[in-house]
Amino acid sequence: MLRFFTIRLLRAAVTLTMVVTFAFLVLIASGDPADIIMGSDAPPEAIEAFRQAWGLDRPIWVQYLSYFSAILSGDLGRSMRDGRDAIVLVAERIPATLALTLPALALKLALGIPAGIYAALHRNSMADRAVMVLAVAGFTIPSFVLGLLLVLVFAVQLGWLPSGGQESWRHAILPVITLGIGGAAVLARFTRSAMLEVLGQPYIRTASAKGVAWRAVVSHHALPNAAIPTVTIIGFMVGSLLAGAVVVESVFSWPGVGRLLVTAVANRDLAVVQCILLLVAATMITANLVVDLLYGLLDPRLRSGKEG
Fold first, then answer.
1. What pLDDT digit, counting tens, does each position of 119-145 carry?
2. What's the pLDDT tens digit per position in 212-230?
């Protein structure tokens, strides 16, 4: 088990390093932050002074080593826009993002898992086909399109809900639904496939042949075994909570981490962008690490390194 845990930690460390490096290189290659922040009308002397003050005049490899060593020491840099610590700016937006993503995750689980189970237990029925049609539609419609449609119907035409902002809990309804629908569709399809695979196993037929009630077969044998692969997709959803809110927060003018990321990218605010990407990557890596550890606990073959 120690070897299993160590390998996963090393993989997580390598992945996090690659994300940090990729984010740094992409942002550096996307343009000079001094030109964006200072503006095109600023005199060359002011732009050069800005670049020197923030170390942008140094070679890229020197900037990278300085940035990476600062991360290792816990310093995620300061915003070039207002000089505040990047981690403080991001931390201020996290509660707003969690106010959307956590209810959206609950909505995904509440809709997706029961729908997938029901569809699997009624395979090839009209109900199964209806669930799958809705799941495909929910999965294929982009979140920004779905969000705009919800605003058009419920905010503009019907006037039932506000179209954006964060003044009350009513402002969160449309963005939560927008975030939840796509994940629920994916979870429904995945749960249905996992259930169908388990229901086709010999031990399910054996239990039924022995006279065990079908309800007991499903609850005691099918559901626990189908839950094991479903942990993977749930872990991915938990890890992508912050990343998934970027588009939705922009559509609904929600003041969360996702909207801050869009603004920081437009302003070439390197420290803030890198801080958010690091947070997103760390969240996803942690979620995947937890899933791997759960697999290791559930399947002894993984702990012994005999996975196929």
1. 988 888 898 899 899 988 888 888 888
2. 777 787 777 778 777 777 8
Tell whether domain 97-303 is in CATH 1.10.3720.10.
yes
Environment class of residue 240 by beta-carbon count within 10 Å: exposed (0-12), middle (13-18) or buried (19+)? middle
48 neighbors 56 (Cβ within 8 angstroms): no
Q: Which residues contact 256 (CB under 8 A, 6 or more apart)?
A: 93, 94, 96, 97, 99, 100, 245, 249
The full set of domain ranges for the chain reads: 97-303
- Whole-angstrom distance, CA of residue 276 vs CA of residue 91: 10
* pLDDT on residue 297: 63
Query: Residues for the chain: how many in total?
Result: 308
Element (H, E) at 44: helix 44-53
Tell me the CB-side half-sphere exposure of residue 23, using CA atoms within 13 A: 24
Separation of alpha carbons 136 and 69, rounded Å: 45
In this predicted structure, the answer to whether residue 1 has a pLDDT above a threshold of 90 is no
Total Cβ atoms within 10 A of residue 5 = 14
| Cβ–Cβ < 8 Å for 23, 278 | yes
